[in-house]
Amino acid sequence: MEQVHPTRMELIKKRSQIVLAEQGRDLLKEKMEALIQEFFKIMVNFSESREGLEQLAIEADLALLVAEAVDDPIAVKSASYATKRQIMVDISGKNIMGVPVPVIQKKSVALNVMQRGYGLIGTSSRINEAAEKFEAEMDMIIRLAETETTLRRIGNEIQMNRRRVNALDQIIIPELKEQAKYIRFSIEEREREDLFRLKKVKKLIERKKVKKKMAQAGGKSG
Amino acid sequence: MDSGYVNARIRGMYSRLLDKKSLSNLILKPDISSLITALEETSYHEDLERALVGKSGLGGIEEALRLNLIRTIEKISEFLQGEKGERYILIFSSRWDIHNLKTILRGKRIKVPTMQIRENLVPAGEFDVSLLSELLKQPDVKSVIDLLATWEVPYALPLTQAFPDYTAHGDLFILENALDRFYYERALSLVGGKSVEEGKIREIIGTEIDLINIKSLLMMFRDHVDPEDALPMLLDGGKVFNQKKLKMLLNLGSIASLIEYLEETPYRFLSDLRSSEGDTVKISTYQHLLDEYLIRHAVRLYRGDPLSVTVVIGYLWAKYTEIMNLRIIARCKNALIPPEDMEAEMVYV
Amino acid sequence: MTGWEVPIGAAIAFAGGAIATGIAQSKIGAAGAGTVAERPESAGTVIVLEAIPETLVILGFVVAAMIIIMVE
Lengths: 222, 349, 72
Prior knowledge:
Chain B is an all-alpha fold. Chain B is built from 19 helices and no strands.
């Protein structure tokens, strides 16, 4: 606070800064509210799919268990070697209130029996069913990855916004106000000093005048 | 050697299979370690001792079951050596050759480390350990097939024939289907004679082919596979369905009408399930019934003519089923699945 | 006076029993070997079963002896 120059110019500058900061804070608050709304909209969706994923995961594990129990785990392992593909995922982005979020584009992982790589004749339907369930789970996971990243990004943004609003609200604006007050006080103080000084000078001058007059009067009478 | 000896040995071995009561006792064991203790009192103790050195718990049991199967097949083919019965064992045991070969081809194609592929092999068939490790040393699919051809392994023939098609499309199932097809053709040709026992074994193989075709059809109908793509997936030589009937079945186009059609065949048990459970039945539930049917019929060979070698085939199926049941018990114990659900997957003979 | 037919008859009687025993024992022996290989605990029963066809050869011997004695 010491580095501010207590000048009138500075005071005007500070006042406009305060107005700007308050405007910024209000804007940020509005943005935050909008983001929170967006966040909850995605959140509802997300928690539903999350439950769906858990259900799928349980089913997939059960199917795998049955496949491994009835056919040898070795047969399951062997069938898994027949896989022929990697999953192609295309990620682009979009903007939600200035927050970049990913958009994942992919073909569905789920396949039909002819595309899984292993021969149909020698593979049991239990193994096939396990593969199918895990493909569905995979699909769900990729979809959830998109929403989860979006949620996380928006969440981060909300937090950052809140920090900014708080900083403006509790540090910058009070500080600016403090500075403005200080400047105002200093200026008033200086004005008062000036006034006092003027008065003092005036008194001195008057006293001098009186002395002169008395001297003149004494000279006449004496 | 005459069949009396073989028959007596097989019957001795059969009498040592676990009956329903001892299986139920095993189901009621609280955990894996008490299951192991209980199994140590059966004919599996030797294999368990060997397997539990390297692996513990569930892995150990599964390893022991595999060892037991390999040992059983080895033992039987030892005392059948040089007889015509040996061929029948071959039909059963070369399933594992097919499994091994497929695993190696699949593994080599996506470059799985050799050690990992080796863990998934079951040396129960014709392939001895030296051939398997030579195959494992090959760098890719092509050289595996070449090596098979050099060693004059019969499976080299279908693989070499299917190889150009495979290189053109890159789909592994072309090779796998060629192998499976060859397996059943070879099995049928091994029992092509006119004797009664060959006829009986041929009937079982024919039944198996039928059941596999039904399974394939169910799976393909559910996924709406184009009938033109589907036809090469079906096997010829079934007991009920010949090539012409298969084409007709393909044109039925849906699971519902297929099962309806099956009512007029020996496989009508599927429609009972469908009428009690509705359309939501999983294919694996159907397959459980199909497997059960096949196992029941194959094990029936054991109860047939006591002086023929078909007893051996019956015994092997019974043994295979027992191992499967034990694996189900062990797996489900490990995952804490309740006994009722366990029994739904098991097959009692 | 006995002719050459008597010892021939006795021989046939004995040989029949012996051959039959041989056939029976070969079958039982093979099966028994299999059984003992699988279940060593049943060895006692197997020996008893193996011995039963022995009665045939004894019967043959008795008949042969009777033929020779009675015809004289």
